[in-house]
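Input for the complex:
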Amino acid sequence: MAQDRRAALTAALAAAGLLALAPEVGWAQITLKSPKWSDLSQQEREVLAPLKSDWNNLDAQRKQKWRGVAQRYPEMKPDEQARIHEQMRGWSQLSPDQRKQAREQYKSMNKLPPEQKADVKQKWEEYQSLPPEQKRELASRPSSAKIPAPANTLPSGGKRPASPTGSR
Amino acid sequence: MTANEAEFARKIKGYLDDGSAGLQGGTLYRLGQARAAALDRIAGPVRSPAFALAAAGGGGGASRPFYAQVRVWVGVALIALAGFGWQQYRVHEAIEEAEEIDSKLLASDLPYDAYLDRGFQNWLKTVAQH
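Predicted:
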């Protein structure tokens, strides 16, 4: 009977193991709803309007995530809402690896003190004004793992751009 | 058994003998059968609770193979259900985390390009060293 009990335990563990592997085999979405665009509320459709044409191509998990973003949207400031709206479509078209990389960089930068975070924004604007050759040279270097805290000194020349250029 | 208990048992036996002497034959036969069944049950193998759990399921399951026993499958189903529940919890947790980070990242005053631009990260590194 000890053999029977061992066999029963093995069967139970095998069943549990199969389910533990569920995300690998795509079972994770079995219980997740994959709503159509028309299933969304009016408020969700307004917020997620930039994603309308791609909505059917998104998997259930991403749809769920975007609906969550739409729920948070009304609590954001108007300038944050504008930025999120502007970037939504481009962000959803990135590859999973790119999104992962951006999230990692964001998390590491988010650990910086507030004054340094503000400085990063300013540095981005300065970076936009660099000559294309210099940008290419910088991009060709091996990447650093994390965004370092920027120094308060300006790069060679010390000139700041007259106006920010933005990313897009 | 103490002397008092033995005396008490002896008296009960006496009363029972007196009482049963007046019973009819059929009643005595049925009582005899019930006694034999009770003694058989006492004489049977004593099972530990764990063994009883594995062998039960429809009664007399000790001789059945493990896969034919209901409680085994109930146990498998419970473990599988717990595993499935845990996996679903992880999926929802991952979605919630992505939802929070993406909301903040896309709403931040730094465009997402900045987090993907290797040149910018290297430039920040260069600037930080000066």
